[in-house]
């Protein structure tokens, strides 16, 4: 079924001017960008977004990385968009990512891994609502 997922182009990618290159991989993979904006996250926004990881040892570094430069938050739409986006992104650690995936091609490390994507339809809905008003999404 057609569904929506949430994506972030992370600061390592915006810093290297890869917003278009990453978006092209998403589009070529069959997803449509139905909302997009470039933001400088605040510490509070990043901590809130990654609240599920608060107890992880890498939480502090993750938050400081995510506020180290601009991000592009996007809503992606397509057939099985959550799973499709995860295929297009590749594994969290670029060392384990398949050939042709965004992380294999562009990521620098497990932290600077160029993109975030929702891991379930339920989390996608929560993450989309964290950054977008309904009227900002145009399908
Ligand atoms: P993301 O999908 O944005 O969700 C949490 C992020 O934590 C993850 O991608 C990684 O970029 C980041 N991260 C940093 N260090 C680690 C680690 N050791 N294990 C898993 N994720 C990590």
Automatic annotation (TrEMBL):
Homotetramer. Signal peptide: none annotated. It comes from the Bacteria. Belongs to the NDK family. It catalyses: a 2'-deoxyribonucleoside 5'-diphosphate + ATP = a 2'-deoxyribonucleoside 5'-triphosphate + ADP; a ribonucleoside 5'-diphosphate + ATP = a ribonucleoside 5'-triphosphate + ADP. ATP binds at residues 10, 58, 86, 92, 103, 113. Major role in the synthesis of nucleoside triphosphates other than ATP. The ATP gamma phosphate is transferred to the NDP beta phosphate via a ping-pong mechanism, using a phosphorylated active-site intermediate. This is Nucleoside diphosphate kinase. It is an enzyme of class 2 (transferase). The active site is at 116 (pros-phosphohistidine intermediate). Its cofactor is Mg(2+). The lineage of its organism: Bacteria, Pseudomonadati, Pseudomonadota, Alphaproteobacteria, Sphingomonadales. It comes from Alterirhizorhabdus solaris. Residues 2-139 form the Nucleoside diphosphate kinase-like domain. One of its GO terms (biological process) is UTP biosynthetic process. PROSITE patterns: NDPK_LIKE. GO terms for molecular function: ATP binding; metal ion binding; nucleoside diphosphate kinase activity. Keywords: ATP-binding, Cytoplasm, Kinase, Magnesium, Metal-binding, Nucleotide metabolism, Nucleotide-binding, Phosphoprotein, Transferase. The gene is ndk. HAMAP family: NDP_kinase (MF_00451). One of its GO terms (cellular component) is cytoplasm. It is found in: Cytoplasm. Its EC number is 2.7.4.6.
């Amino acid at each position: 079924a057609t569904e929506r997922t949430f994506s972030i182009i992370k600061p390592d990618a915006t810093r290297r001017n890869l917003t278009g290159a990453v978006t092209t991989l998403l589009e070529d993979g069959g997803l449509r960008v139905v909302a997009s904006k470039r933001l400088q996250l605040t510490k509070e926004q990043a901590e809130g977004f990654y609240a599920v990881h608060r107890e992880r040892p890498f939480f502090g570094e993750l938050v400081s990385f995510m506020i180290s430069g601009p991000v592009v938050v996007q809503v992606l739409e397509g057939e099985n968009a959550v799973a499709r986006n995860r295929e297009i992104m590749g594994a969290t650690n670029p060392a384990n990512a398949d050939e042709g995936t965004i992380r294999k091609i562009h990521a620098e490390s497990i932290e600077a891994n160029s993109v975030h994507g929702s891991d379930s339809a339920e989390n996608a809905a929560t993450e989309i609502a964290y950054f977008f008003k309904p009227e900002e999404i145009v399908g």
